[in-house]
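We emphasize that the prediction below concerns an isolated chain of 323 residues; any contacts that depend on oligomerization or on bound cofactors are therefore not represented. The input was used exactly as deposited, without trimming of termini.
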Amino acid sequence: MKVLVVGGAGYIGSHMVKMLHQTGHHVVTLDSLSNGYRDAVLFGEFIEGDIADRQFLDQLFNKHQFDGVMHFASFIQVGESFEKPSMYYENNLSNTLTLLAAMVDAGIKSFIFSSTAAIFGEPEYVPIDELHKKHPVNPYGHSKLMVEQILNDFDNAYGLKSICLRYFNAAGADADGVLGERHIPETHLIPLVLQAASGRRNNISIFGTDYDTPDGTCIRDYIHIEDICSAHLLALESLFKGCESRAYNMGNGQGYSVREVIDMVKHITGADFKVIEAPRRKGDAARLVADSKQLQAELGWSPKYPELETIIQHAWNWEKKQT
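Result of the prediction step, given as a token string:
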């Protein structure tokens, strides 16, 4: 099938482009390069452009007969979303709506949306399943949940089928060592700790040590980047087979604390570095762990790299290339 990957020059998108290519799909990447890297797009055709530009999208969809679209072009920093909510609603919501409207007019019926656990807010229980109440506590989470609601309406009105994948903490790097995580600024824990281990950072901060967790630090469900992509691929191919619209939670089902991640990095790298205890950040939940049973049962997905040690080892292999 011919697939458009929006945001395909970013962390998750670039890994997705590689997997689509390897599984025989014809892939085209669309990215504005505001946060992505042109050299991360290793396969298929690359087009620089912005989904905010409706005229551009119409021309693109007239030129290419896409069977499906995968969307990875959202802004993702929770803290920044509090400071710049207008930017988040414009990019994550308004621009996505422009993309969806153009898809409808072009007759494209399959859409995969990269969603987030942030739509649930402070969890009432863990692991978090699809029935959990949705109460986002930051503009980022609100923007993602609004898109999910729009997709439901677009399915009912226009027959646009979609699958939303709500994953928790994307982590790791390409097992082949070809691709990895690059953000400016970097906000994800594992690459930040690895940068401290490699000497690219002077220290690492723990934001909050008084949470109701065994060691007082936040617990998160880390999922390997290739496992994220494999779930997206299964979701896309299920839509091609006529599956109805769905939304799935995705993770390993096991959480690790900030201190456990730091200790594992020290174990793998053999490096020591300064750890600073800092105040809590606004909007951080104590525990975020996914229940992926529905995804596993309905799409046959299972993580290939569930172990934290493997996730960090792959990320460390990539980090060593950056120094």
